[in-house]
Amino acid sequence: MSDISVSSLRTCHCGLVPRQFTSKTLSNSGRNFHKCANRDKSCGYWKWDDKDFSDGAVIAINQLQL
Fold first, then answer.
1. pTM for the full model?
2. Which domain holds residue 6?
């Protein structure tokens, strides 16, 4: 995983702006997600960033066999 940018639209349970990452796993390759920016004491906040895809598209993408 590598950090790409910061989302200013939401905050985690720590009150921080979550950092954006891009998944590099086989099942979710290229899919963006946000997680708590507090590396030392993360609150556990984690969320997929699927705003560009409908629910049906996300399901279809995740069912693709690579």
1. 0.60
2. 2-63
